[in-house]
Design brief:
It is a single chain. The chain is an alpha/beta fold and 206 residues long. 31% of the residues lie in helices and 19% in strands. It is built from eight helices and seven strands, in the order H-H-E-H-E-H-E-E-H-E-H-E-H-H-E. It has a seven-stranded mixed sheet with strand order 3-4-2-5-1-6-7, with helices on both faces. Strand 3 and strand 4 form a beta hairpin. Helix 5 runs parallel beside helix 6. It is globular and about 55 Å long. The chain starts with 5 loop residues before the first helix and ends with a strand.
């Protein structure tokens, strides 16, 4: 009986993966969609809450309006919306059954979860991560933004799934990260700059 060499038993060429398996192993490809009715999207973010993020978002929106830009302000901080209080808006957005019309205040098109009848800007919403991400994506695309030069997005604080989902699926032209000057607070900026993977990141430290 002839015993064949082990190399002879092995196939000469490695089997190739099927196209379906290649796609599965390649991971998910995210398509970044612009917010309809806008030219440039600027996100205002922070690693932690209570650092002045919403105040900064409000002021930059007002400053852009003052120099003649058409500006929108989207309050995506679903855990604790601040824009209704900052702009003193107590009315509910009008709708045609499909989309919402932003509320115009100081010449700025505003939208916030705090405008909804369930909250009216007074209560934070206790939702889990996936629910928050889905709500923000749906909410921002169900608004009739009208010919904006800039839309300023007041993001929820943190570096979790909500922020990652927004960055992966919404086309952004820049990010401003707001922080306090303490060394420990500045360390948190590392966690927020890496997930965004954008070259247009500015830091505002107060």
């Amino acid at each position: 009986m002839c015993i064949r060499d082990r190399d002879d038993l092995m196939p000469k060429e490695k089997p190739e993966l099927s196209d379906a398996m290649r796609k599965k192993m390649a991971g998910k490809t995210f398509v970044k969609n612009p917010i309809l009715g806008t030219k440039f999207t600027i996100a205002i973010s922070s690693a932690k809450g209570g650092v002045g993020k919403s105040t900064f978002a409000t002021n930059i929106a007002l400053a852009l309006k003052k120099i003649g830009c058409k500006v929108g302000l989207f309050d995506a901080d679903i855990f604790g919306p601040s824009i209704p209080k900052m702009f003193d808006i107590k009315e509910t957005p009008k709708t045609d059954g499909k989309k919402l019309s932003p509320i115009l205040k100081y010449g700025i098109q505003c939208m916030s979860i705090g405008f909804m009848p369930a909250t009216h800007g007074e209560a934070a919403i206790n939702w889990r991560g996936p629910m928050v991400s889905s709500a923000i994506k749906s909410f921002v695309n169900q608004v009739y933004w009208k010919d904006l030069d800039f839309i300023i997005v007041d993001m929820p604080p943190g570096t979790g799934d909500t922020q990652m989902t927004f960055v992966q699926e919404i086309k952004m032209d820049g990010v401003i990260v707001v922080s306090t000057p303490q060394e420990v607070a500045l360390l948190s900026l590392i966690h927020i700059s890496e997930p965004t993977r954008l070259g247009m990141i500015s830091y505002a430290v107060f």
